[in-house]
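Reviewers of the previous submission asked for a worked example of the structure-prediction workflow described in the proposal, so we include one complete record here. The input consisted solely of the amino acid sequence. No template or homolog information was supplied to the procedure at any stage.
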Amino acid sequence: MQYKLYTDVHEFYKDTYDVLMRHEAQNLIPLGNIIMGHEGKDKTDWRDPVHWLMATISDAKGTQLTAIMTPPHNITLYATDNVINPEAISCLIDGLKDREIPGVTTEKNLALYFAKEYTLRRGITFKTTMSQRIYELTAVNPDIQKVGIVRLLDEKDVHFFPYWAEAFFAAGSYGKTEMSIPQEAAPYLYRIASKKIYILEDNGIPVSMAGFTRTMQTAIGVAFVYTPPYERGKGYATSIVAQISQLALDKGFTKCVLYTDLANPISNSIYQKIGYRPICDSLQLRFE
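From that input alone, the workflow returned the following structure tokens.
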């Protein structure tokens, strides 16, 4: 097995793109990242490839394992064709000996295998921070009732959007129960300027949000789905996710991809009603 560490994102893109595309929806995170790095249009915060860890493990048959980490985020892995090669995992761990890895986020079986081997070697432990399911949609259920009006998030929303964003992040990060109070406008204005987040208004009042994340060749990620607690149970999340999913399909994408928290049966039920179908399960594991 050969461990190859990359410093050039364009070379990494060339060597891994076709491999990752074998499971495009499953590889939303690594594919979206290498496309973004290859295009080089956005280098804010963690998005600058100069800080990334990019590696492949190969043998005579080709690439067996792909790894990418965009600090401070977890490492993401893909075992080619979802065939876990123990020798490739061992080779990767050898190659990572001088790197600090906070955790792993990837397909469930691979995440567990890697975490067990990595923590055994390092003499540390790991814990599950989120059990997720990856869904894919190719057609929106036409029977979904459209409630309210969907529009792009814009600068006039800065009086409430930072609080919604922090509430969304708190709900999905390592069991936090309290949200951070926004201190600066800049990170939220960046999100607004990206023109990827949408607001659902009912009678002129913002009641829910959802947006797009990584853009791939034929697929686009859907995320940032949040409805304030006092507006839940009214069909708002279902409506906005259905509407922006259809918007993506109308723009020419053949599928939408999203991650759900398996601990939230309501959201999983909502997405399936819209037309999302399970692709695989994924784990977020944190090393301690």
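The first helix runs from residue 9 to 20. We consider this example representative of the routine output the project will generate in years two and three.
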